[in-house]
Structure formats: C-alpha cells, structure tokens
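Please, structure for the following, as tokens.
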Amino acid sequence: MTAIATLEAEAPAGIQAPAEPESAVSPATFPVPSTVHGMALVLLASVAVVFALKWAQSFFISLLLGVLFAYTLNRLVVWLEQIRIPRVVGTSMVMLGVVSALVLGAYSLRGQLQTILDQVPEAASKLSSGLASLREGQDSTMQKVQSAANQIEKATSQATATPARPKQPATHVVIDTPDFKLGNFLWVGSMGAAALLGQAAMVLFLTFFLLLSGDTFKRKLVRVTGPSLSNKKITVHILDDINASIQSYMFMLLATNVLVGLLSWFALRWIGLENAGAWAVAAGLLHVIPYFGPAVTAAVIGMAAFMQFDLLSTALLVAGVLLAIATLVGTFVTTWMTGRIAKMNKAAVFIALLFWAWLWGIWGMLLSIPITVIVKVVAQHIQQLEPVAELLGE
C-alpha cells in the first residue's frame, strides 16, 4: 500500500498508477462476541445438569429429602445441646421420636385404612360397570348415527332417480385391550412399596448422619471458598439464609397441612363420610403437592362418597367442600406465610413446579418449592445470578 501511494504521488497527470491486486485485499472479518460463546457453554452445561438430574433422580431425591429433614430437625438438636445433652444422644432422641410418631400415627389409623382397602374391589367393580355402560352408550350412539346416514343416503338416491348402490355391510373396528390382572397389579404394587420403604430408610439414615455432623459441612464449605474473607462472608450468609428459609418453609408446610387435615376431618364428619380420619390425613398429606394435590384429593374422596351414599350430589358436595378448604388455606394462610418466608413470583413458582414434575414426577412436585427457595436465596448473594433472583422475585 505504501509503494502504490508513492507511485500515485509521483505519476504525471493522465497516467494512472497500477491498481492493487484483488488477492492483496484482506477479507472483512466479523468477530463473534465472547458472550455468544459463554451462552453456548451455559446452555450445554444446563442440558448436562438436567440429564444428570434425570439419570440419577433416586440419589438426588434422597439427598434433598435428607437435607430438608436435617435442616428442619436441627433446631431441636441444637436446643437439646443447649441443655447439656450430647449431640449424639440428642440426635438419637429426635430421630427416635419422629419414627415413633409416624409408626403410632399409622397404627392408630390401621382400622380405617383396612376398611378402605377392603372397599377397593367394590370400587373397581363399580368403575368397570360404569365404563361398560359408557361403552354401550357410545355403541348405540354410533348405531343411531349410522342409521341416520343410511336414511339420508336412501333419500338422496331416490331424489336423483339413480339406483341406489348396494348397501355395504357395516364394519366395526374392534380394539383389543389387555385384560386387567389383579395379580400383576399387586406384584407391581408390592415392588413399588418395597422400593419406597428402602428409599425411606436411606433418607432416615442420611438425616441422622447429617444431624450428627452438625456444622461440619458448613465449616468445610466456608473453607473451600478460599482465603478471601469476602467470599467466606458471602458463603456464611448464603448458608444461614438457606437454613432460615428451609426451616420457615417446613414450619409453614406443617402448619398448613395440619390445618387442612383438621378442617377436612370436621367437614367429612359433618357430612357423615365413613373413615373420615384416614381421608383427612390423606387430604393433609396430598396438600403438600401444590395445585394438583387438592384436585386429586377431591376426586378420590368424592368417589368414596359416591360409593357410600350412591348420590352424585353428595359426591359433588364432598369434592366441593374439600376444594373450598384447600383454596381457603392456600389463599390466606399459605400465601401470607410464603410471603414472609420468601417473596416469589407466582408464575415462576408454577413454571418451576411444571419443570420439576416433568423431571421427577410426584417427588418433583413435592420438592419444587424448596428447590426454588434455595435457588432464589443463592442467586440473591451472587452478582452473576442476580437476573435469576429478579425472575423468581415478585
């Protein structure tokens, strides 16, 4: 370029300097911003994390349940330590008390649970007969539609004075459905119950060892963050906020579920439904699942009311009362207490519920809100995650 400029300056008028060859012109380049590479890496890492959570869901579910229970029961263990009870003894006492309460609660409801299980064959028989009558009604409806079509075709052929085509025999599509075998159902149910009991035992042992360790993991996490004092302070604040949020959320969950169970028990006793205590416990437990739990409760207990009273109006009354109780508690009590714990966006919470339900099923529904609370607490203390905290907040 310098030589060409010199020739252009020294050349006389009317004489053009030789043009620069095309091969010497450097092509235009458009550098890719580094943010695009960062977004691609974040996307790949997110896909890998989702795949890992899906693949090892049994491990992560047990781990999260153990952490939640340990955070919830840690306050009792600390209180026992303050009154000069060693941590090993205090942890053993707390775990023994929890297991004893669960066993005694199940033992006190054993009669009502047995009655409900004895009514399952009758409910299955009524359900199968209802489906059979519905299928017969569909067949008769299709026959009426086919007869009307034949009459219309006959009238049309007479109006146009054309010979009617020979009537084709009606074809019926028969769909073979596999027969329901009670033995296979019971075998699958027993295997699922055994797996559930094994997972419950693992969660109990994990909770025991986490309570026994105390603040060991907290100190190790603070030490892992590095020598920087600011990083250690941020880690301590995150762990303290997670501890307070989880304990407050679990207390809110216990209070609202007990309230739903008591109100359901009073309502079902007033209506006269049998085994009201067992159904009230089921309503309180299923209320843990946001949105879907009350709907399942209303449908199942409404079916039980229909079996007992054989009246659709009574079944609808029971379902409506249970939905009203769940809506009342969820609108006033749960919303007020959740706002005091962590002000979260309702739409973001519902989206998180759908995501974790797709990922882990029922367990995802149960753990979606605690996971969302933890993510929001962590995002509030890390500058790079402030957009996440903004999306989850009100």
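Confidence is low (pLDDT under 50) at residues 1-18, 20-33, 172-180, 185-190. The CA atoms of residues 345 and 394 lie 5 Å apart.
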